[in-house]
Specification:
Blueprint: H1 3-24, E1 33-35, E2 44-48, E3 58-63, E4 68-72, E5 81-83, E6 93-97, E7 107-111, E8 116-125, E9 130-134, E10 140-141, E11 148-152, E12 162-167, E13 172-176, E14 185-187, E15 196-200, E16 210-215, E17 220-224, E18 233-235, E19 244-248, E20 258-263, E21 268-272, E22 283-285
Antiparallel strand pairs: 1-21, 2-3, 3-4, 4-5, 6-7, 7-8, 8-9, 8-10, 11-12, 12-13, 13-14, 15-16, 16-17, 17-18, 18-22, 19-20, 20-21
Amino acid sequence: MPKTCIFRRILRAELFFAAILIFSGTALGQSDRVEGPWGERGDVPVAGDFDRDGFPDDIAVFRPSQNNWLFDFDADGDTDVSTRMGPGDEGDMFVVGDFDEDGYVDDVGVFMPSRRWYFGTFSYNSATGTMAWSSPFPSINWGLRGDLPVAGDFDGDGYRDDLGVFRPSNRIWYFDYNSDGSTDLRSGPWAIRGDLPIAGDFNGDIECGDVGVFRSSDRTWYFDYDSNGDTDRRFSPWALNGDLPISGDFDRDGFSDDIGVFRPSTRTWYFKYSDVTWSPPGMTGGPTPGYVNA
């Protein structure tokens, strides 16, 4: 067979393989960083500043099967510390914030199916390599069964100590400033049933008062700056159905505007960086009439 034919066949095979990677969302052109395998199927992922270095670029998982927390500082695919102490039970959902207003995003809010919230903080001791848990905050009742929780700085006071929930049944978002068990603001309808919510600083105003959702049905991310019920940007396609979304400052640029997903099927973590001065490929502005907004 002529060498030119062999070369063409190899080239076609390489292009076909590259197309598969791009379609699956795993090509390097799609993700800025890929880590793993780390974590297991059934783990519940979160992101925060658990090593207290000033950047919420750490990932952690709660493993219900073992009632165990595992932490990966800087999201590099290695377990730095684990502990059986702390919150969590089957069916609980978790948010990470700064509920003690000490400037570090290392506190955890637990939203239980019973509508009960309780809060605590993880404290890492680098000298001993251990993680301690304490719960100095009062618990509250707020939200409804089926709500999906987020945490952020929704009142703009500089602390990520506020709670929010997205209620799929009516597509309304509810916000509780200072986590005291009362609803201070509602917005929407925005997003649809099946969307998975996140919160962060997606418009670069430092306040971390924006919300977003990952819609796995069309692999699209929608962002609502200032949580006012309007779509300000959308980004697609990235990630796959079944991926679990997180947000943080994974590129350590000082803005919590990056997104990530944990893919349980492969135990892999994918990260997409966002520079607030430019739009990532595929991200456009403006609402989507009749689709996201009512």
